[in-house]
Amino acid sequence: MEQKDRNLSAIIYLLIFALIFYAFSISNSTLSLDGKTLKDIILFLFDNYLDFILIGYVFICFQIAGYVELRYKQDFITVSLLSIIFTPLSIFFILQNEVEDD
C-alpha cells in the first residue's frame, strides 16, 4: 500500500510540474530583471504578489502542521496556529525540546 501511495504522489508531482511549465509556456508576458538588485526584486514581489505569498505561506504551514499531527500525534489546530504565528520551522524545534524533556 505504501508503494502505491508513493507512486500516486510521484504522478501528482509530475502533473503539477507539467501544469506549471505549460502555464509558463503559454504566458505572453515576460519579466525583465536586468540590473535589478535582490532588494528590488523582493519589493516588486511584495508590492504585486503579496496575496500569492501569503497563500503559499499558509499552505506550507498547513502542510507542516499535518505532518506534525501524523508523526508526533499533536493537535492539528494548535500546531497550525503556532506554525502560522511563528514560523513552520519553529514547530520542529518546539517538538524537539519536548522529546528531549520526556
What can you see in these coordinates?
By secondary structure, the chain is mainly alpha-helical. It has one domain. It has four helices and no strands. Helix 2 packs antiparallel against helix 3 and helix 2 packs parallel to helix 4. The longest helix has 35 residues. It is flat. It starts with a helix and ends with a helix.
Helix/strand layout:
Elements (H helix, E strand, L loop, with lengths): L1 H25 L11 H35 L3 H10 L2 H14 L1
Estimated helix fraction: over 70%
What quaternary form is this?
A: single chain
> What's the rounded overall pLDDT mean?
84
Task: Report the sheet-strand fraction.
Answer: under 5%
The major sheet is characterized as:
none
Secondary structure class reads mainly alpha
Distance between the termini: 33 Å
Strand-and-helix sequence, N→C? HHHH
Uncertain ranges: none
**Structurally, how many domains make up the residues?**
1
What is the number of helical segments per DSSP (H or I, 4+ residues)?
4
Radius of gyration over alpha carbons? Answer: 19 Å
The number of E-state strands comes to 0
Shape: flat
